Amino acid sequence: MYKHVLVPTDGSKLSAKAVKTAARLAARLGARITGMYVIPPYVPPMYGEAAIYLPEITPKRYKELSEKEARKALAVVEIEARTAGVPCKVGWLTADQAWDGIVRQAKTKKADLIVMASHGRRGLSGLLLGSETTKVLTHSKIPVLVCR
């Protein structure tokens, strides 16, 4: 059935639940998992007349902090995979839109299933904030298992 499961994570508790589900599913199917974290690109701060001054983060410092968060989130994937006895690789990439990075990685890594969390945003918050999960479901050509 499924042999390669892609598991995107944002480091949240809800993502950790999806990671655990993916590891258990992969163990039962004899599949491997790839954990991934999407880093938004660096955007230099812009200041206007009414803006509050914030110390600028350099692109180098942004990269260091983002990669530190990625490693922290992906460590959870590695631990769950090890616990389930599942082969695992992890990595991160930079993408303007998380959903696009997830869909592209699934294709690039030749995953045959994406397992991800949904924060369940509906109504106005879903409209304003958008749903990465909904966008992955809309644009992915491979199956997506959504965990809540």
Class of secondary structure makeup: alpha/beta
* Cα end-to-end separation: 23 Å
Measured as a percent range, the helix fraction is 40-55%
Give me the side-by-side strand order of the main sheet. Answer: 3-2-1-4-5
How much strand content do the residues show?
Answer: 15-25%
Helix-strand topology string: EHEHEHEHHE
The chain-level mean pLDDT equals 89
Brief sketch in words of this structure:
By secondary structure, the protein is an alpha/beta fold. The chain is built from five helices and five strands.
Describe the structure.
The protein has 5 helices and 5 strands; from the N terminus they run βαβαβαβααβ. It has 148 residues and is of the alpha/beta class. A 5-stranded parallel β-sheet has the order 3-2-1-4-5, sandwiched between helices.
Q: Which descriptors would you attach to this protein?
A:
5 helices, alpha/beta, single chain, 148 residues, 5-stranded parallel sheet, 20% strand, 5 strands
What topology does this entry show?
Blueprint: E1 4-8, H1 13-29, E2 32-39, H2 59-84, E3 88-94, H3 98-108, E4 113-117, H4 123-129, H5 132-139, E5 144-147
Parallel strand pairs: 1-2, 1-4, 2-3, 4-5
